[in-house]
Amino acid sequence: MADLDAVLSRVREHALPDVEERERLRTTAAELTDRTRAAIADLPVEADVVQVGSTARGTWVSGDRDIDLFVRFPADLDREELEEYGLAVGHAVLPDGHEEYAEHPYVKGVFGGFDVDLVPCHDVAEAGDLISAVDRTPFHDAYLSERLDDDLAGDVVLAKAFLKGIGAYGSDLRTEGFSGYLTELLVAELGGFVPLVESARSWHPPVEFDPEGHAERTFEDPLVVVDPTDPTRNVAAVLSAANLARFQHYARDLLATPREELFEPRTPEPLDAGAVRDHLDRRETTPVAVVFDAPDVVDDQLWPQLRRSLDGVVRGLNERGFDALRARAMVGDGGGRGVGGDGSGRDRSGDGGGRAALYVEVETATRPAVERHEGPPVAVRKHADRFYESYADDVDPDTYGPFIDGNRYVVEREREFTTVRGYLESDAAADIALGAQIEPAFADRDVLVGDAVATLADRFGRGLREFYEPHP
């Protein structure tokens, strides 16, 4: 433990905000709060403002520059008026800000060098009475503020720095990682960062934590942390099985070999075309890429649709015998790289747009002209007769059989697609389960096969490096 304690001590030095940074944050938040109260005073309804999130609780990683202010309106205020008054306050406080949209619009801007979200919500009595997802955030803040002392707050910062370093932090639907709220709940529940990683290394999913002992319903996620303010919600619902496994892997790694590098985020250098070709020569597989214009939507809409579309492409390739080895959805470097993690229900990710690629490595690019199709055993009379008769009268000269192989009828029939390109460029490829906003762009797709994928390096170099140089 001595080595681990030394590493964590050094990490604290650069991960925890210093006195100057905290004071700068405090004075900026206070000025924003005063401006917000002044704007509220001009409204025909009562409201108040509360600062929430990690910067309100002292659990932000040094260098993070987010201030979240929530304007709480009466619970009986209708949605249209809440949006109208909320935006009026937001634009008054942040005149150069812009509107973004979660379940309702809010204003985002920059003030004093800090990124500011000014979000309207309903002042409901309990989190379970929420009218929109953002209404629960002030309850999260109040719950954690009562339970996080200075030592635990410092351990939350360590946990967030660790999750950022291993690439598992952020509840946006691109990352599918740990939200800030989830991280803070786990640290509070387990009593610190070291107890958390010591516990995580031995988890056998599904793992459940229920801080307030609600136990009102069953969840089916690999990690369940019942929201102490809303027992109908699993705070870890967005967390993917892969990111939970990643956290476990690096928890074991940290405890076995403590080192600061695990707390330092890695940004992979793009792979160039020559390096891509080197991988292709060594692997002797066939890469294929379906490239199209990404719809201009926020990441939290884009990435679920990309994954759905990728699953459809892989399924289609496998059903036709091309045997996908590995697959990845990619968005052009520099576009749509949103991060999130506050658990508020807001979409904190960046915009989509640019080009997207569904990249699949297949074991074979060509298949024989015929494929085997097995019928039922001859002894299963009713079904066997139907199979036999359906092919016995077939005049297609390219069909072989029916004949008996072992105890069942078999035919060898003409294969619909003999090349991976033929399939991916066909209408059949567009019949897969695509995301709703992917489908129009998919119709105007480009298909690259083999060495031609190296041309993608200019736009997708980081994604290609992650594909060809994978790590936990």
UniProtKB/TrEMBL annotation:
Residues 43-139 form the Polymerase nucleotidyl transferase domain. CDD domains: NT_2-5OAS_ClassI-CCAase. The keyword Hydrolase does not apply. It comes from the Archaea. InterPro entries: CAA_C, CCA-adding_arc, CCA_tRNA_nucleotrans_2, NT_2-5OAS_ClassI-CCAase, NT_sf, NuclTrfase_I-like_C, Polymerase_NTP_transf_dom, tRNA_NucTransf2. GO terms for biological process: RNA repair; tRNA 3'-terminal CCA addition. ATP binds at residues 54, 57, 140, 160, 169. Its EC number is 2.7.7.72. CTP binds at residues 54, 57, 140, 160, 169. Residues 283-333, 354-446 form the CCA-adding enzyme C-terminal domain. Keywords: ATP-binding, Magnesium, Metal-binding, Nucleotide-binding, Nucleotidyltransferase, RNA repair, RNA-binding, Transferase, tRNA processing. A single active site specifically recognizes both ATP and CTP and is responsible for their addition. Homodimer. This is CCA-adding enzyme. The lineage of its organism: Archaea, Methanobacteriati, Methanobacteriota, Stenosarchaea group, Halobacteria.
